[in-house]
Amino acid sequence: MKLLKELFENNRQWAEQVERDHPGFFEALSRQQSPDYLWIGCSDSRVPANEIVGMLPGELFVHRNVANVVVQTDFNCLSVLQYAVEVLGVKHIIVCGHYGCGGVKAALTNNRHGLIDNWLSSIKDIYAKHQAQFEQLDEDSRLDRLCELNVIEQVHNVCRTTIVQDAWDRGQELSVHGWIYGIDDGRLRDLNTVVTGKDQLEQIFRFED
Q: What number is the average pLDDT over the span 148-156?
């Protein structure tokens, strides 16, 4: 007996609807993948990357992890980044967090949560770096602000990789953006953080040719 058969039925209905709306869509999709965008987002099930920007399969290359963190030693994330930039030739990398992020909330406490505490350690670093900003804020506002600062920090982490800097050195058109999503209203906010070249990085992080 097929397990989770309701999901297979949902899939059938979805595929039929897409084909009705876009005849020949899946045949064309099977022949190529050429997205202009890489989305680095949170694993939270309430933040479906394609849906919230109204894009179909094939239009958005996606990497997700808890709290949308970009760590220089995470070879899963770096492999996605390298493939997106060097093979797919994406023009935009979007780091998108969301308000009310459980991972960021966990990082704001001293409670033990298990293995994930090690993953979230870098978010604690962000809090410590900007601690003065949080002193006059209530609990909800602290969480929202740390969610925003986390996105901004991850944008810089993306730009500090050799992958992105090599692309800029080649003259490749590539921008890295920081956005945040509101689960309570379904709206994206631009955090006015966009990096388009090495000249926007601190000197110590710029790799030389």
A: 98
Does the annotation mark 63 as catalytic? no
Q: pTM for this one?
A: 0.94
Listed in sequence order, the residues at least 6 apart from 42 whose beta carbon sits closer than 8 Å to its beta carbon are 64, 65, 66, 67, 68, 96, 97, 98, 101, 103
Structure confidence at residue 208 as a pLDDT band (50, 70, 90): confident
The helices-and-strands tally (H runs, E runs) of the chain is 10, 5
Strands in 61-65's sheet, in edge-to-edge order, are 61-65, 37-42, 92-98, 175-182, 187-195
The one catalytic residue in 12, 22, 46, 170 is 46
Reduce the DSSP state of residue 76 to 3 states and report it. helix
3-class secondary-structure state, position 9: helix
Question: Is 42 among the residues known to form the active site?
Answer: yes
**Catalytic-residue membership of 44:** yes
Is 77 an annotated catalytic residue?
Answer: no
Active site residue 170: no
What's the pLDDT score for residue 209? 74
